[in-house]
Amino acid sequence: MTSTAPDLRNDQVAAIADKALWIRRRSFQMVYEAQQGHPGGDFSATDILATLYFGVLRYDPKKPRDPDRDRFVMSKGHCTGAFYSVLAAAGYFPEADLSTYMEPLSMLNGHPNRNYLPGVETNTGPLGHGLPVATGIAIAGQIDNADFRTFVLTGDGELQEGSNWEAALTCAHRKLENLTLIIDRNRLQQGARTEDTASLDPLDDKWRAFGWHVEMVDGHDHAQLLDVLSASPKGRGKPLCVIANTFKGKGVSYMHDNVAWHHGVPNKEQYEQAMRELV
Amino acid sequence: MSAAAPSKSGFFDCRDSFAATIEALAEADPRIVTVVSDSVGSSKLGNFRKKFPDRMVNVGIAEQTLVAVGAGLANGGKVPFVSAASCFITGRALEQVKADIAYSNVNVKLIGQSSGVAYGELGPTHHSIEDLAWLRLFNNMKLIVPADPWQTAEAIKAAAAHDGPVFVRVSRMAVPALERPEGAKFEIGKAETLVEGTDATIIANGTMVHRAVAAAKTLAAEGISARVVNMATVNPLDEAVIASAAETGAIVTVEEHSVRGGLGGAVAEVVATTNPVPMRILGFPGFVPTGSAEWLFDHFGLNEAGIADAVRQTIARKK
């Protein structure tokens, strides 16, 4: 699917894996130091973010409002540990700034603010906002016949918000092939499993029924993510929904698939154990 | 569907001004697009759609997406005018207005159509007498309530020229063209004094302004000198004009909105914290009973006689 030569592609996948490891370690340090955050969702989204920023998106961190940039909308805006880490890794601001996470007057609010931080496209936090805004961005690109792409990452519990399904209708109606929705399908929301709360399955059928092209991937497999996200959308004639099957807390044994880590914060022993495991 | 007053000679539907102005602006600026939620006809944008079919985005009956798509279009370099019934574009999509437009501080123009009680007998679900109270909390959003066709056109031009979020509240109620001095200009945040006066000041906006002018004429015949200020911009307020109004010693505000949190509330915040003088806030007390818009205006004293009475009573409270 990708046109990159095999050796280069292997190098790229390895580089993405390195970045993902760095993001997990750095975001968990942020959460530990701030004693706040959403580390479970940070970890389920990390591999998706690393793949986007180091394998897929076209951007120049020195020109964050370049009209031709690819857009990435972080709809699951509570997962700022991972989001801010990947933005720093991509060069939007100095890594040292990450140490100010949630401090008074920090640019690094608990949820992202585009007016504070370069690389943030829209202010998110309340769920169900990212896809509708991304829809508008993609429509602007469609009107101008521009070649930038728009990506949006939502949680899965977030899909219980009706606003997503309003936007889903418009995306399909307008055949927004320049839009890609990635669902971080970790199957856990804040309080319980999605399927024990307001069921989403069969999630792929729902998106197909709404007129989308659907791909299912292992959301922790960088090669799979790279293939599906970097494939050209031209001629598909439909928006793309990538259901990335993930685990909340992926990478740390005691957090793995554990709802308690939605917004759990580590004590010193837990932090040190995580750092020993994240190597 | 329309419950607007029948148009009579010399009276205008300000939606026509909105539509003509947005078409002219779009001719000159390719960035301008309109966004609607099956609200083409009620926004009088049928002609815009004919002229610029690729520059109208209709998301269907989906107000959350309506407003959010506006934010996204602005991100993509467009200047979107998002137009729908004021009750729905504000109330139904309030969190999108807050997070996607105001807090994100993007260049989106929200047009609240058929505002106030224009839908009359259709009732409070379709009235928008809460919109200004909700939106006034977003400190960076300009709020404009034009009073007549000229001011509607000027407000739309000013909204297009301003880089940032703007809400323009457009009425479908028939209003006359106000008399203004030659060369009058509209500026966001600047009120206009339509009638000079020294005994009291009536501060009105939107459909209430011409009624306030009529009330001032009634009062003048009795020897009461009432100033009339058209406070078309509710955010930011023209605080200098309010300070000057307080010097007349009595203020009556009049709006096609709830008496809570709208123009009257905004003026009262300034008056109470700077130079307290007797005030009266005219508007609707809350959900209103069944009736046409004109009937509701009369029932709640939002007419020439009611405004004049309120001025007399407020002057009587002067110390």
TrEMBL record, chain B:
Its cofactor is thiamine diphosphate. SMART domains: Transket_pyr. Residues 12-177 form the Transketolase-like pyrimidine-binding domain. The keyword Lyase does not apply. InterPro entries: PDH/Transketolase, THDP-binding, Transketo_C/PFOR_II, Transketolase-like_Pyr-bd, Transketolase_C. Keywords: Thiamine pyrophosphate. Belongs to the transketolase family. This is Transketolase family protein. It comes from Devosia sediminis.
